[in-house]
Amino acid sequence: MTSYAAAGVDIEAGDRAVELMKASVRRATRPEVVGGIGGFAGLFDASALAGYRRPLLATSTDGVGTKVALAQALDVHDTIGLDLVAMVVDDLVVCGAEPLFMTDYIACGKVVPERIAAIVSGIAQGCTLAGCALLGGETAEHPGLLHPDEYDVAGAATGVVEADGLLGAERIVAGDAVLAIASSGLHSNGYSLVRHVLLAESSGLTLDTHVDELGRTLGEELLEPTRIYARDCLELARTREVHAYSHITGGGLAANVARVVPDGLHVRIERSTWTPPPVFGLVGAVGPVERGELERTLNMGVGMVAVLPPGEVAAAVAFLAERGVAAWQAGEVVEQAGDGTAELVGDHA
């Protein structure tokens, strides 16, 4: 006689993983959540939206790419969930939407309850930082498709924004300032390039190598969680005049800013306004990777951009500094015929 367990799927391990993660999930909640973990669907009391004049629901979904390979190599699994939340919820924030709830999906070769619980603990922590509820999720065991120590994570989130508070290209005008908001490091994009360069045998580096210019091991630097901007950016938009945000993810700074620039306008970003953190220079030097390729792949030290009137810059910088987030004016919006575009000019400080 054969069995599901003989085929590689351990139902009891899945049940234990759920028990281990319950405490983390309970902490990542909101008053609108109905019921608890364990049902077939998560429930959220939509009557909370009755106070909106015209609520618009926003949704996004994402993963963390090949950064999961580093978590697996280092056997550190409680930070990758923070990356997942950041990649998902901060795509909602760019339109001014408050993230309400998130669900996750973990596919693995073998359910190791403690590992799954660690992943979910990071997701729950990220949801708490973002102010949204972790409403539910799924863990799927895929023996034969993934190796026992392999896994991947993905998630989706829903948010809400008042229709007349929607941020975006329609609000941007010539003369607006471009505010760069610092990243915490590489975030969760470009890791295929980063791993290819820094972990190549010819680099002489390993994840355990202490890199002086980084001030820590290479592994610690590469696993640094993505900064979650949700609460900072939403509160800034509530208290100051913000026209648009751009989340700097895959494609780099210029390409992501261009996504919120309307036709007839152009964003000029001055490299001289900041010095990218050392990890970006390390990737470029070890590669070697030319600057244009780095800028098309990595965030170069800027994880979010706000477009706002020039008279709001000083107050916005001070507001974010009080919350422990560095920001600076990096450019401006100018008139230019044709489709909306953005470019980086000059050299870094």
TrEMBL record:
GO terms for biological process: 'de novo' IMP biosynthetic process; adenine biosynthetic process. Transmembrane segments: none annotated. Residues 174-338 form the PurM-like C-terminal domain. It catalyses: 2-formamido-N(1)-(5-O-phospho-beta-D-ribosyl)acetamidine + ATP = 5-amino-1-(5-phospho-beta-D-ribosyl)imidazole + ADP + phosphate + H(+). Its EC number is 6.3.3.1. It comes from the Bacteria. It is found in: Cytoplasm. GO terms for molecular function: ATP binding; phosphoribosylamine-glycine ligase activity; phosphoribosylformylglycinamidine cyclo-ligase activity. It is an enzyme of class 6 (ligase). Pathway: Purine metabolism; IMP biosynthesis via de novo pathway; 5-amino-1-(5-phospho-D-ribosyl)imidazole from N(2)-formyl-N(1)-(5-phospho-D-ribosyl)glycinamide: step 2/2. Keywords: ATP-binding, Cytoplasm, Ligase, Nucleotide-binding, Purine biosynthesis. Its main location: cytoplasm. One of its GO terms (cellular component) is cytosol. Belongs to the AIR synthase family. HAMAP family: AIRS. PANTHER family: TRIFUNCTIONAL PURINE BIOSYNTHETIC PROTEIN ADENOSINE-3, TRIFUNCTIONAL PURINE BIOSYNTHETIC PROTEIN ADENOSINE-3-RELATED. This is Phosphoribosylformylglycinamidine cyclo-ligase. The gene is purM.
